[in-house]
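FW: tagging you since you asked about this chain on Friday. Here's the raw sequence from the shared folder, copied in full. Didn't touch anything.
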Amino acid sequence: MKLERLYRRSKASMEIRFAKKENLEGIMTMFQETVLNISRNDYSSEQLSAWARISDSKELWLRRISEQYLILCYEENDLLGFASLKDDDYVDLLFVHHKNQRKGIGKLLLNTLRDHVQSLGGKSMKSHVSKTARPLFETLGYKVVSPNIVKIGEVELTNYLMEKEII
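HL: got it, structure written out here
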């Protein structure tokens, strides 16, 4: 399946593409920079460092690229954000570059994933959502099912299992 969508934003255009192995370095860098820069008000330095270290595993990211429905949002040649679906209804990843927050990119990525879930006949979507991303998910109709504790090494982080019915 080919995914090629153009979206207009002011004078520039955004394009949604499937992730490929060639995008690995950009994805890993964006993940780390975004975690370290946008979640400072929600998590401690120790928590952010533990979370950002996940980006060190190339094998993990290559597996995500090959096994998940992982999409990228570009403006010209600049990677603005990425998102992925696991198991056809679980939003595993949603990250928007820290310099491009609050510009509709996260909404665009989530809505693109929703469209894919609907095309598969899915009726709902779920995700474990960070404290930082929770307001966006709530704005898009997701509801908190339960708080969740994630353990990365010896460090614990709180996130939320959220779910949304789609029509």
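FW: The chain has one domain: 5-122.
HL: agreed, and Confidence is low (pLDDT under 50) at residues 6-11.
FW: great, closing this out.
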